[in-house]
Amino acid sequence: MHHLKKNIILTGFMGTGKTTVGVELSIRLNMQLIDVDSEIVAQAGMPITEIFDKLGEKKFRDMETAQCLRLSKLNNVIISTGGGVVLRKENMDYFRKNGIIICLTATPETIYKRVETDCGRPLLNSDNLLEKIERLLSERKSFYQNADMTINTDNKIPLEIAWEIIETLHEGSAFFIPQRDSSWGSETL
Length: 189
Description:
Shape: globular
Oligomer: single chain
Number of strands: 5
Largest sheet: 5 strands, parallel
Number of domains: 1
Structural class: alpha/beta
CATH topology: Rossmann fold
CATH architecture: 3-Layer(aba) Sandwich
Order of helices and strands: EHEHHHEHEHHEH
Radius of gyration: 16 Å
Mean pLDDT: 88
Number of helices: 8
């Protein structure tokens, strides 16, 4: 297991690869991956779409903030956040105390291709999905720019993105870098 000085916090808009890249980082670094949305679903006992429908977005965001506070106290973990976690400054403040915040980005067109058939994303209920993605990205741009590091995921495979993160963290002496080998596959996001 690699011991980092700080946690790895993956942020970014939905469909940028946070969970997929988080899995690859977890495998390569032998670190636990925790998904904030999965923690909320477990706590609520219902899927996110149902939380939005029954309890509303504010209640969901309150649950999200509570999970951010709890998870920020852990050490040597990778935390994959929901796309809207950046909307509350306190969430990022919690994570910044003990984490390196990495924002994954992609063009609206790439995000559209990745999420167009996903019914589990309540904020994407729209007649014009691409337009909604563009609008939400524009509204959140300033929040995402507060990350410690930004990685574009367009036209990259998850392992390539994970490797880019590992190399960048290594340059900052965050931890010892593992060697690449043939197990670093080639499947794209």
